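Researcher: Good morning. I'm working through a list of sequences from a screen, and I'd like to move beyond sequence-only analysis. For each chain I'm collecting a predicted structure so we can compare shapes side by side. This is the next one on the list. No need for commentary yet; just the structure.
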Amino acid sequence: MRAVIRGFDRFLRRARGVFEFCDDPQCLLRLRLARTPRELHLPGRVIGKGEPMLELHLWNEHLPLPPVEGPDLAWGLRIGRMWMHSLHCVGQYVRSTPRLSRVRAIGGVTVLLFAGDHAGGVHLMRRSGFTVVPHRNPLGRFGEFWQNLYAWGLMWAFNPASVRGRRLTHLRQAEIWMAADEFLRRYGGGWVVFFLCDGGVECMVFCE
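Model: Good morning. Structure tokens for this chain:
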């Protein structure tokens, strides 16, 4: 069954135009060129419906497996590092790709934001610069059920430990958005370097 789900996911990615923009095994993201689904109200600006956007998709095969006993602090820190690294990979790619110069927004819909620690996931996205809003499926609860079922199936197929003890009904969809120029300001230049400070606390420095 896992092979069937993975095969269907590959088919769906090809059909929707989701593409891999790099071969970095530490990158957690794939991309898709799309149009904004509605008017987006972001800090200091409004982006109209139908504007060019770059949709972020999780690269499931690159997501590290959590420990057998469940996600812990070390695993969470690793995911955080890979997430920040991935955003910089996207920023470099957007800045160096002329056909993406008209993109006005970057983001999309995610269920993994709420698959674990709700507050922690939201905090990570907001700290990354994204505006986080609840997702409203146009088909209502019927659409939400099938959307969550597909997301749960992907999690089960690619990362079985992530659904251990977690009910389908507990999944929540959310949207993350950032204006493209703000994204490039944050992630289109230097890189983030992680190191251990005094006391073993992980610190983050942005390097031009």
